[in-house]
Amino acid sequence: MAKRSEERLPPAYLWFRKRFPAVAEATESLGEAVRTAGPLNEREVALVKLGIAIGARMEGATHAHVRKALDAGIEPAALEQAAVLACPTVGFPHTMMALGWVRDVLKPRPR
Questions:
Q1: C-alpha distances out from residue 96 to 65, 77, 82, 84, Å
Q2: What SS3 string covers 39-107?
Q3: Dist. CA 110–CA 34, nearest whole Å
Q4: Could you tell me the CA-to-CA distances from 19 to 9, 11, 23, 26, 103 in Å, in that order?
Q5: Residues whose CB falls within 8 Å of the CB of residue 32, separated by 6 or more in sequence, listed in order
Q6: How many Å from the N-terminal Cα to the C-terminal Cα in the chain?
Q7: Mean pLDDT in the chain?
Q8: Do both 51 and 103 map to the same domain?
Q9: Higher pLDDT, 22 or 4
Q10: Crossing angle for the helix pair 42-55 and 59-71, nearest 10 degrees?
Q11: At what angle do helices 42-55 and 92-106 cross, to 10 degrees?
């Protein structure tokens, strides 16, 4: 998976990377190692990671994985479906929350 440009990285992560460069490098290396550890292609990896973030109820990670999936060329409808697929496993209310997180990135709302 291609690295995102600096301007797309969250400010908190940029600070962390500057403050703890060895830890950030180790984390990034682990991420690369697990992405390339098997036969999944970039699209499949992006969807699996999004599903994990949704299932773990991690809003920030869901936002990040939607951005990464878009960078991988995955269409918005597929990302919305990934959230809806959570329904039988995590329930309707959590699915609606996850769908909102996906849509936060797809259609940013005015703040």
A1: 17, 15, 12, 8
A2: CCCHHHHHHHHHHHHHHCCCHHHHHHHHHHHHHCCCCHHHHHHHHHCCHHHHCHHHHHHHHHHHHHHHC
A3: 36
A4: 15, 12, 9, 14, 32
A5: none
A6: 31
A7: 91
A8: yes
A9: 22
A10: 170
A11: 130
pLDDT in tens, 23-44: 999 999 999 999 999 999 999 9
For residues 31 and 45, give the distance between their C-alpha atoms in angstroms, rounded to a whole number: 11
Residue with tokens 């997180």: 101
pLDDT band at residue 1 under the 50/70/90 scheme: very low
Looking at residue 47, which CATH number applies to its domain?
1.20.1290.10
Q: How many CA atoms does the CB half-sphere of 23 hold within 13 Å?
A: 8
Regarding whether 31 and 58 lie in a shared domain, the answer is no
